[in-house]
């Protein structure tokens, strides 16, 4: 797994979200919780170019080669038509804390392993 970085505040908030979502979305909640456990907690100054909540992200689906631009948001802000993807989705949980050039595998709702590569990150 690639190294990931996150602020203490986001780590705390996302860990809480994962724990409170275990009954409704067990697979992705466990994945998000594991990501928070392995993340390096750092301050704001060390997160330039790192995917955070609210970041605009361009990534490539490594299976299809298709690129997609999304904004990573909390579940209540998600809107697929506006490309606002919840961190409580497999793709959203996989993206948090990554930087351009990093690649990660994640499990789809159909229990298939997919990979994605981060191409760009902006605020």
From TrEMBL:
GO biological process: DNA-templated transcription elongation; regulation of DNA-templated transcription elongation
PANTHER family noted in UniProt: REGULATOR OF NUCLEOSIDE DIPHOSPHATE KINASE, TRANSCRIPTION ELONGATION FACTOR GREA
Ranges for domain Regulator of nucleoside diphosphate kinase N-terminal: 2-41
Organism: Bradyrhizobium canariense
Name of the protein this chain belongs to: Nucleoside diphosphate kinase regulator
Keyword Transferase included in the entry's annotation: yes
Pfam families, per database record: GreA_GreB, Rnk_N
Top-level taxonomy: Bacteria, Pseudomonadati, Pseudomonadota, Alphaproteobacteria, Hyphomicrobiales
Chain ranges of the Transcription elongation factor GreA/GreB C-terminal domain: 49-122
Keywords, ordered alphabetically: Kinase, Transferase
Molecular function GO terms recorded: DNA binding; kinase activity; RNA polymerase binding
Keyword Transferase: yes
InterPro entries for this protein: GreA/GreB_C_sf, Rnk_N, Tscrpt_elong_fac_GreA/B_C, Tscrpt_elong_fac_GreA/B_fam
């Amino acid at each position: 797994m690639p190294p990931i970085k996150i602020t203490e505040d986001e780590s705390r908030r996302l860990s809480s979200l994962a724990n409170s979502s275990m009954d409704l979305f067990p697979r992705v909640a466990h994945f998000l919780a594991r990501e928070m456990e392995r993340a390096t907690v750092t301050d704001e100054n060390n997160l330039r170019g790192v995917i955070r909540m609210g970041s605009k992200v361009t990534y490539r689906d490594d299976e299809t080669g298709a690129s997609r631009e999304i904004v990573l948001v909390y579940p209540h802000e998600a809107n697929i038509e506006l490309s606002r993807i919840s961190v409580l989705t497999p793709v959203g949980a996989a993206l948090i804390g990554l930087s351009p050039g990093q690649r990660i595998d994640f499990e789809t709702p159909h229990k298939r392993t997919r990979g994605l590569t981060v191409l760009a990150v902006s605020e």
